[in-house]
Amino acid sequence: MEDLIWKFIDSDCNDAEVQKVKHLLSSDVAFKALYDECVQLNDLLTDNAVVTISPTFKSKIVSKIESQLVVERQSNKNILPFWLIVSSVVAAIIALIVASLMPDQSAPLSFELPIDQKSMSIAIWSMGSFVCLVFTDFVLKRTSFLKQRIHIFS
Question: CA angle at residue 27 from 26 to 31, to 5 degrees?
């Protein structure tokens, strides 16, 4: 019954529950006493829930957050943007695949590098590993960024 009273106080009841509470309030004395006690407790809790923050404390918190943001912005600057690194790796992979699929043609400035299956495999594994490392670095920086944000507000 107490759960029903709290739902009624919090305005979480459906129409049938509202009618039931109103009926019990008018007919049951024990229910009415429990309801009055819950209302008094709710009023006491809501009156004490208001917390005022002094302006100096608020300004200290805001300045601390701003200084953390400045430090984070300065430390998060990469030499090359993530999209540039990934697009360069993708372009290099595509160039290697295209070069391996093209028929032998003698170009005037050809270096005549032999591209066999083993060297192609090594190149692809190297580039794939590089992409994985860049992606891991990106994820770690983001999680560090989020942890710092959560730490500031906790």
Answer: 85
Please state whether the predicted TM-score (pTM) of the whole model is above 0.85: no
Place of tokens 């860049």: 134
> Do you know the residue count of the chain?
154
Q: What is the pLDDT along the chain (154 residues), one digit of tens a residue?
A: 788 888 888 888 888 999 998 998 899 899 999 999 999 988 888 776 566 788 898 889 888 888 887 776 666 555 666 777 778 778 877 777 776 676 655 554 455 556 677 777 777 778 778 888 888 877 777 777 677 667 655 5
Chain mean position to CA 105: 52
Which residue's structure tokens are 């004395």? 29
Residue 32 and residue 12: Cα distance in Å, rounded? 19
Phi, psi of 77 (to 5 degrees): -75, 120
Under 8 Å CB-to-CB from 26, ≥6 apart: which residues?
none
Give the sign of the dihedral formed by CA 113, CA 118, CA 123, CA 124.
positive
